[in-house]
Amino acid sequence: MAKNILIIGACGQIGTELTLALREKYGNDHVIASDIREGGESLMASGPFESLDATQYSAIEDVVMHYEIEEVYLMAAMLSATAEKFPMRAWNLNMNSLFNVLNLAKEGKISKVFWPSSIAVFGPNTPKENTSQNTIMEPSTVYGISKQSGERWCEYYFKKYGVDVRSVRYPGLISWKTLPGGGTTDYAVEIYHEAIKNKRYTSFLQKGTKLPMMFMEDAIKATMAIMEAPTEHLNIRSSYNLAAMSFAPEEIASSITAEIPDFIIDYEPDFRQEIADSWPSSIDDSQARKDWGWEPSFDLKNTTKEMLTNLN
Ligand SMILES: NC(=O)c1ccc[n+]([C@@H]2O[C@H](COP(=O)([O-])OP(=O)(O)OC[C@H]3O[C@@H](n4cnc5c(N)ncnc54)[C@H](O)[C@@H]3O)[C@@H](O)[C@H]2O)c1
């Protein structure tokens, strides 16, 4: 019999596509989507949905018991740009939701957990190029501090209580099905929407701001791969570095100009510039490649083709 899976925060940028991919693999009725708000039509129509607040332990426990859930993917969080505006709310959501799920696993009520970390765990003192798995980590954002603490707790729960928790540090994610939810790399999605609508985009990040990025299909592939990897292959229980490509706003713009020749980009950096400046430019993901066979499929050129074709 197929296992039952719960996704918390299923209506967001990643959760939407993850839910659809897991339903495709395990069957619609085996993948329970949940969130504090309703999602897009394809998500809501394709399988069970529960209204669920990730900060409420007993509400999650009820859903887990009712559906006999084995695995939880915790995608609910407050992202980097929004978290700078509401530090305490971000800390409360990002940490308590994680403790709730880790404690359910500690008590044996679920057997496996996926929790995403981020390149935001790194900070201004981290070496920027080809940033290694273990390096200086002094995050300077509320979001980064919550992700780094989360990583420490995941490793702690694995070592002390044997909780099977798995994690990757996602870079900025580019997708067309769902809009991004308040991160610093949102510009790399908005730019495609604006290119099609107005042939013009004003970037909130400055020219030359090179950041690690990934097309959503690769992010979903990585998420499913690490969850399926044999336990004995996993050597990192905090969170794995993960990479696909790195680019600056002018590079994504010129990949768009190759398809839409009269597209124009201009620059009006805002508070998000400082967040971006504190993050690495490129990531060394050799440990993920070695341990569980990670390999990305999309570069910037393919990503631009997919984005423009699907948004058109
Ligand atoms: N998107 C990226 O580029 C990116 C990069 C690195 C890491 N991540 C991480 O991946 C995870 C998912 O990110 P995303 O981009 O899909 O975020 P998102 O903001 O698009 O989606 C988050 C979802 O969580 C829901 N949510 C908020 N508060 C909730 C609560 N109390 N209970 C239940 N649901 C709640 C929201 O309604 C939303 O649907 C987060 O942990 C995020 O930090 C994302």
Descriptive notes:
The protein has 312 residues and is α/β, with parallel strands linked by helices. Helices cover 44% and strands 16% of the residues. The strands form 4 sheets. The chain has a 6-stranded parallel sheet with strand order 3-2-1-4-5-7, sandwiched between helices. Strands 6-8-12 form a 3-stranded parallel sheet. It has a 3-stranded mixed sheet with strand order 9-11-13. Residues 8-9, 11-15, 35-37, 52-55, 75-77, 79, 93, 116, 118, 170, 172-173, 180-181, 183, 185 line the site of nicotinamide-adenine-dinucleotide.
Topology (elements, then pairings):
Blueprint: E1 4-8, H1 13-26, E2 31-35, H2 41-46, E3 49-51, H3 57-67, E4 69-74, H4 80-85, H5 87-106, E5 112-114, E6 117-118, H6 142-161, E7 165-166, E8 168-170, E9 172-174, H7 187-198, E10 200-203, E11 211-215, H8 216-228, E12 240-241, E13 245-247, H9 249-257, E14 264-267, H10 272-277, H11 286-292, H12 300-311
Parallel strand pairs: 1-2, 1-4, 2-3, 4-5, 5-7, 6-8, 8-12, 9-11, 10-14
Antiparallel strand pairs: 11-13
Bound molecules: nicotinamide-adenine-dinucleotide.
Tally of helical runs:
12
Number of strands: 14
Bound ligands: nicotinamide-adenine-dinucleotide
Shape: globular
β content, as a range? 15-25%
Give the integer mean of the pLDDT values: 98
- C-alpha-based Rg, rounded: 19 Å
Low-confidence stretches: none
Distance between the termini: 40 Å
Major β-sheet strand ordering: 3-2-1-4-5-7
Helix and strand composition category: alpha/beta
Order of helices and strands: EHEHEHEHHEEHEEEHEEHEEHEHHH
The main β sheet shows up as: 6 strands, parallel
- As a percent range, the share of helical residues equals 40-55%
